[in-house]
Amino acid sequence: MAEKLLKKGNEAIALAAIRYGADGYFGYPITPQSEVMETLMEEMPWETTGMVVLQAESETSSINMLYGGACCGKKVMTSSSSPGISLMCEGISYMAGAELPCLLVNVIRGGPGLGTIQPAQGDYFQAVKGGGHGDYKIIVLAPASVQEMYDFVGLGFELAFKYRIPAMILSDGAIGQMMEKVELRDPVRRLTDEEIAQKYGHWATVGKQAGRKGNIISSLSLAASEMEAINLRLQEKYRTIEKNEIRFEKLLCEDAEYMLVAFGSSSRICESTVEIARQKGIRLGLLRPVTLFPFPSPAIQEMLPQLKGIMSVELNSGQMVEDVRLAVNGAVPVEFYGRMGGSIFSPEEVFSAFAQKFNL
Amino acid sequence: MDSNDIIKPENLVYSKSKVLTDTVMHYCPGCSHGVVHKLLAEVIGDMDIQDKTIGISPVGCAVFAYKYIDIDWQQAAHGRAPALATATKRLYPDKYVFAYQGDGDLASIGTAEIIHACNRGENIVVIFINNAIYGMTGGQMAPTTLLGMKTATTPYGRKSELNGYPLKITELIAQLEGTCYVTRQSVQNPGSVRKAKKAIRKAFENSAQKKGTSFVEIVASCNSNWKMPPVKANKWMEENMFPFYPLGDIKDR
């Protein structure tokens, strides 16, 4: 039987990194995610799997260490919280431009600025619309439990390498800090240098192998025609991802007349809101986007014929609601309810807002 | 007997390194980058480590170093080459990893990365081209620009009260426990080229022996942005740069 432990979300990320065969973790301390690196340092995976763990001098440096490690065809990751991710956005843009796979974890805290260490979802735009410069996308996964924090490390690496794109786990201080049961999956062993050279040697900087040109990893292309071609290729990749990789969960949507859309910790709270509504005889369902990019627009659109209204529930000023409205395109009313700056709503509070907005 | 009688394989005493590509360099005539690239290629060839060497190119004139030296390359964001080199070397401890950076890249925007990579004693080689000016962007003041020196952003000359002092980052790097070899060289004449090549070779050998970070500064000329013909630029460098940035080993252990 698989081993089950009681762990914090942040600790689950660290344990998963080792067990999913990560080659390197590079990070910088910031609340509320410091347990990720602390757990890795305690576990000393360099003694067991050979995984490299390094505390960098800044988030700027961590993301550029990731860039170097990703260039090598290695499974590399970092974790941080909002202000740290802002610092990393330059590097994320470079990695998107150079088409490098990596795993990023953002355990969001309230902003803007130094903000607060309390949980929030204010970095939705930054993650989904691209916080750095240029036209790029990254895959964004939104875990709603400690188990998903663990599992999405594996899924994130898988998707990142499948499409050669950065993938991000967009979590928040609540899921990072809360303790839940987590089931450890069977360990995946790290690839050897020879296996990496064989698998990724056609693009990665593994040392110039005989019979091929030197591999050059760069996001630079001064000629407009070349840069446009690169952009078109990237956009094509994003469309493929939108076609293949949408993930979501539905709760009590079969007969729903109204639907909440919420991700991550908000969706956990909304599960209880749905219960409250059902007890009152209101047919309310919940759609939880698991992938924020690609956004599950088709799943929302499928629901439209039966719906009278949708409410997006977020721990921010209303960010994902814009994507919900784009998907709905005016077919039914789309309302929003949110709290900001580290404040969290209760299920009852969400229900009251929902009932008020739809005059129920 | 004419020259065609002499040009025979058995008479060959020198040839272009096989590690250099045939791509025509974009550097200005008189620029030091080309010479340093050649030396790097020769060292990699002499040590027979072409398949084990990974280079990190900077932002600046040397951004295109990857076009000229035939190895695997990573092109870094401005100033971040030591971070890329750190991860690459830690993930591939048996490969040779070098970062190639200019003065704006290394001593201004990338100060944190170079200090901490050197302080951790990463087993990498750093090649630092110091021509006291931003080349690629058109001759602006660099951290290493000498006092009084005219640049695009110090049109009346660098003044300490307005722009601070030129940064002797190499002396600073030498203070760090993680560095094993810190040297300042130049490439303006055959003698200095030979010395610089020896220094680069030593730096690569150190990294194989895991002795810590080896840091090779090359005091270089940028005749285009200094607005001088190449010969005059070299003379100006000898007369003005060398007194402030004296050549030789600063640390060797």
Tell me what the structure shows.
The complex is a heterodimer of chains A (360) and B (253). Chain A has 360 residues and is of the alpha/beta class. Chain A has helices at residues 9-19, 35-43, 45-48, 59-71, 82-97, 124-130, 146-163, 173-177, 193-200, 224-244, 264-279, 297-303, 320-328, 347-357, and strands at residues 4-8, 24-27, 52-55, 76-80, 102-108, 139-141, 166-172, 179-183, 216-217, 248-251, 258-261, 284-289, 291-293, 309-314, 334-338. In chain A, strands 3-2-4-5-7-6-13 form a 7-stranded mixed sheet, sandwiched between helices. Chain A has a 5-stranded mixed sheet with strand order 10-12-11-14-15, sandwiched between helices. A two-stranded antiparallel ribbon of chain A has the order 1-8. In chain A, β6, α7 and β7 (166-172) form a beta-alpha-beta unit. In chain A, α12 packs across α13. The longest helix of chain A is centred in the middle third of the chain and has 21 residues, at 224-244. The termini of chain A are far apart. With 253 residues, chain B is an alpha/beta fold. In chain B, strands 2-1-3-4-8-7-9 form a 7-stranded mixed sheet, sandwiched between helices. Chain B has a two-stranded antiparallel ribbon with strand order 5-6. Chain B has helices at 3-6, 33-46, 81-91, 103-109, 111-120, 160-163, 169-174, 190-208, 223-226, 230-244; strands at 53-57, 72-75, 96-102, 125-130, 133-134, 140-141, 179-186, 213-219, 248-252. Chain B has one domain: Thiamin diphosphate (ThDP)-binding fold, Pyr/PP domains (Rossmann fold, 3-Layer(aba) Sandwich). Chain B is globular and about 60 Å long. In chain B, 53% of the residues are buried. Chains A and B meet through α4, α5 and β9 of A and β1, β2, α3 and α5 of B.
